Amino acid sequence: MKTILFDASLCNGCYGCQMACKDEHCGNDWSPIAAEQPTTGQFWCKVEQTTRGKIPEVKVQYAPVMCGHCENAACMEAATDGAVYRREDGLVIIDPVKAKGQKAIADACPAGVVYYNEALDLPQKCTGCAHLLDDGWTVPRCVDVCATGALKVVDEEDVPEKAVPMPAAAELHPHVYYVNVPKRWVYGVLVDRTINEVVIGATVKLVDAEGVEVASVVTDEFGEFRFKELEEKAYTVTASIEGYEDVALAADTTAEDVVLGDIFLSAVA
User: Can you give the residue ranges of the 4Fe-4S ferredoxin-type domain (predicted)?
Assistant: First the structure.
């Protein structure tokens, strides 16, 4: 089974995959694979933008969300009369004739990537560009146009062990995987308010709830420190610097990245 592998470290958010999908399917009827995709309201390949952190440390993350052609496809289970079927190459296709009126097909998708075309009274989604594959192409348009190589088609057995199933449909065994998606991070700046200067070269530690030191970094020339690739749990940021009172600040990454901002140090009396 062929699988789409998305490498988040290579994506620059150009939206080329999303636009290529629109170009391929809007204004084109590829029956019996798919009816025409409407110009608005549907994104068979949708680039989701997530803003993480807050000023002054903000990071933007991109990820394409598309049909996973899932091994346990909910849309197939919801369909009647064979309106959704799996091809020999593994692609899950909604028959544009048999699926007429079957809104339950769209409602069943946990990832929200099966849309309902009210004008055509038809559920619709990514086809994996099956019509192009049948015409000799080796990859769908979204992969073909990816300028950075962030999107690739690989055999499922070649998916890296560290890759994760597309989160929106992970429980259904989608054939879309993500790799190198950044984990949580903690950021801060050590500042000496009395002289209005940052503190350079200070050792800052990250300790978990059990008191175990997870990581240690040294503040850079801007007084900044960053802990990256963290698990989602509670931590404490600590620092013991000669001449200043000790620092101990909560940094809980369970729900989001942590930006501590300027940390003003107090001189020892």
Answer: 58-155
Whether the predicted pLDDT of 269 surpasses 80: no
Q: What is the pLDDT of residue 193?
A: 87
pLDDT digits (tens, 9 = 90+) for 74-133: 999 999 999 999 999 999 999 999 999 999 999 999 999 999 999 999 999 999 999 999
What is 184-265's CATH number, 3.40.50.2000, 3.40.50.10490, 2.60.40.10, 3.40.30.10? 2.60.40.10
Helix ranges restricted to H, 124-248: 130-133, 141-145
pLDDT attached to residue 57 = 95
State the CB neighbour count (10 A cutoff) for residue 207: 17
Measure the CA dihedral 41/8/142/116, to 10°.
Answer: -30
Structure tokens at 123: 């559920």
Q: List 54's β-bridge partners, or say none.
A: 57
pLDDT surpassing 90 at residue 1: no
Tokens of 78: 């919801």
Residue with tokens 């990514």: 126
User: How is domain 2-179 classified at the CATH fold level?
Assistant: Alpha-Beta Plaits (3.30.70)
The length of the chain, given as a count of residues: 269
Count of beta carbons in the 10 Å neighbourhood of residue 179:
18
Q: Based on the number of CB atoms within 10 Å of its own CB, is 10 exposed (0-12), middle (13-18) or buried (19 or more)?
A: middle
Sequence spans of domains, the chain: 2-179, 184-265
Tens of pLDDT, residues 168-202 = 999 999 999 999 999 999 999 999 988 889 999 99
Q: Say whether pLDDT at 13 is over 90.
A: yes
Instruction: Locate 243 and state its tokens.
Output: 């001449």
Do 100 and 79 touch, CB atoms closer than 8 A? no
